Amino acid sequence: MNPTEDFSNRIEEAIKHPKNLGELDGADAVGTVGSEDCGDMLRMWVKFKEVDGKRVIDKATFQTFGCETAIAVASVATELISGKTVEEALAMDGADLSAPLGPLPPLKIHCAQLVEEALRSALAPDAYAPEQKNVAPTLLQRFQAPTQESKKIVLRPSNE
Ligand code: FES
Questions:
Q1: Could you give the count of Cα atoms lying within 13 Å of 24 in the half-sphere of its Cβ?
Q2: Over 90: is that where the pLDDT of 2 sits?
């Protein structure tokens, strides 16, 4: 099997049953980003819990208008960050978040970076609870009825 086929198989396997897809009721924070590279968007919801006096990620979910790689990375990333503190999750980059899928081809690295940026947006100190900021509950509704929610555009150097 050549590397391209191997990658395609890994992604196909991951998106057959994506984990943590959809909005998260009672989320504590939400982050939405768009990629300048491809125009795709990804939103991530995060809910926290206290464990032994530490605030850790209880659950994270996502929605995306993105490619299959973004779906696959977001799926594995939301599983990877469960149980981590904000600091531990923020220490993970796109490569860490996509590690269970194996190495990504150069043209797909920005898909993992989109997931990383959505996570960073959701974990930012000024991240907000969805109910506090009139955030449209789904990405589709975000487009249909724009709210006061801001969208962060991820800028990447053109040589990546
Ligand atoms: Fe846009 Fe993958 S091509 S996120």
A1: 26
A2: no
